[in-house]
Design goal:
289 residues, mainly alpha, 13 helices
């Protein structure tokens, strides 16, 4: 997996430079700022290093599960790679959805949404902790009988696909919007507009969002960032601010229900009943339409 990412780095740099040049003539779009882009690229480099270090553990975990697999799949069969593609994408959907709807996973994922800009550098603003806690979502693939090598390959393809989604230069792609995740769909996902919160979790196929009713089309202009932006380019703040806030809430909780809630309930959940989760904010916004 990491080898594919390494080979893609020159492509990332070249396309970011091209996008930067094109955006200089588009005053209607957010564009780049040096500090924001530098923070995003630095987070991406950190993710690559951490992922590489943890790869042995995740590969070993998948291999152990594969050795206890339910089926022995024939990788030369015509259906093997199409099935792997669809099933891996389904696993990613639930991994990504948990990253928004369970605070423990949100603490790892939030940094990807912390930029108030939306460009190709934003795609590189990857988590330093998701590689450590997200592996469980792909465990079913190994149990079914997909060898870890192919699971990691499918993950890499999904990650590389999602890079080009982070741009404002591509508006819509016609009929492809019904099946595939596109820049328009993913812009919605990065919006902090109440109606856009926790929508469009797709990796490659948008069909999962349509199936599970988490799809939202792009209508209003997107306001990028978090409901409460962090206002910092410090890498430690970007990577760990929500971990710190979550653990502080757990330590201050009065009951075990509260402690578990601050770990497993959606972001914004409060022990005292004053919760303002994304679902609440979205419902309130839609009710006023």
């Amino acid at each position: 997996m990491n080898a594919m990412i390494y080979w893609a780095i020159p492509f990332f740099l070249a396309t970011m430079l091209l996008e930067f040049a094109l955006l200089r003539h588009r005053g209607d779009l957010v564009g780049y700022t040096p500090k924001d882009a530098a923070a995003s690229v630095s987070m991406g480099l950190g993710n690559v290093i951490i992922s590489a270090a943890f790869r042995v553990v995740s590969f070993g975990f998948f291999l152990w599960l594969w050795e206890h697999r339910v089926f022995t799949l024939d990788e030369s069969a015509w259906w093997f790679f199409p099935a792997l593609f669809v099933l891996e994408d389904h696993c990613y959907y639930w991994f990504h959805r948990a990253g928004h709807e369970v605070r423990l996973f949100w603490a790892a994922h939030v940094n990807h949404h912390s930029s108030t800009h939306y460009n190709l550098s934003t795609a590189l603003r990857q988590s330093w902790t998701s590689p450590l806690i997200g592996v469980i979502f792909w465990a079913p693939l190994a149990i079914i009988g997909f060898h870890p090598t192919f699971i990691l390959l499918a993950q890499a393809i999904s990650l590389l696909y999602q890079y080009w989604l982070h741009t404002e230069l591509i508006r819509t792609l016609g009929p492809l919007e019904w099946v595939f995740n596109t820049p328009s769909h993913h812009r919605v996902h990065h919006g902090r507009n109440p109606e856009y919160l926790d929508r469009n979790y797709a990796g490659i196929l948008i069909i999962w969002d349509r199936l599970y009713r988490t799809f939202e089309p792009e209508r209003a202009p997107v306001d990028y960032g978090l409901t409460t932006n962090i206002g910092s380019y410090n890498l430690a703040v970007i990577a760990f601010h929500e971990w710190r806030a979550m653990l502080r809430d757990v330590a201050r909780a009065r009951t075990w229900r509260g402690r578990l809630g601050y770990l497993l309930a959606p972001p914004g959940w409060r022990e005292d009943g004053t919760s303002k989760t994304s679902r609440t904010l979205r419902s309130e916004a839609l009710a006023t339409r």
